[in-house]
Amino acid sequence: MGIFRIRNHSIPLLGAAVLLSVIPRITAAAEPAKPAETCVECHKDEKFRVQNKKIYDYYQEWKGSAHDLAGLSCTACHNGDPSKAEKEAAHAGMVPQSDPASPFHYKNIPKTCGGCHQPVLDRFAKSRHFEQLKSTGRGPNCITCHGALNAKVYSTTIIERACANCHNAKTKNHPEVIGKAQEILERLNHANGYRKGLRFYYKSVKKPEAMAKVDKAYTDTIDFWHEFDFKKLKPRSQDLLTELKTLYLEAHKEQSGKGDGR
Questions:
Q1: Residue 38: is its pLDDT beyond 80?
Q2: Which contacts qualify for 170-177: CB closer than 8 Å, 24 or more apart?
Q3: What residue ranges do the domains of the chain occupy?
């Protein structure tokens, strides 16, 4: 079952000629300093380590996270006014997480995260997990596996911990899915290892554009994971691993041939 057939689509090689563009020197006026966001300035205060451990930990998880590095600060998701120094004014427009109108109400988490991660939300919305979340509020949402801020990477330990909340021998709610999920996830992580190797190779031979199809193949499969249809995902993950492994071995063989002067 081929899903992407990366090898059947050759990627044009770059020609030897290199086009050089001459960019005129322009002296740009210095940009005004970006005003500090009061949310961050307040919540990073070390006093919260003792006074409010939850707030302290929340900031520490955000600092240096993928969301921080992407430029997403507190108000991007929580609302509020980052230009105000007073607590009440800065928190204007925010509602408690327990409020169904809150973007961080348990049922609303997928919609909030989907504001940036739409392809993942589209897949998750097709799953039985999403149906359970919307109908009973007992299904998983994004933070169940990924955490609230640090967007934890996939790992078999996270899968076991998260899935076992519902899928266990006591509930008799398909406990076998944990093993299936771990097997598929290990395969996807293995495929990602070949993907990283290919990125290094293509960069070394100055053909980074060759990663476009590789990245798309991997990303499409990861998005599909969020439907949690393991019957379909198993062969799909197998195809992905086979394709990336083959590409990697071919690239390694080509690199070795150059090293031997062939």
A1: yes
A2: 177/230
A3: 37-94, 177-257
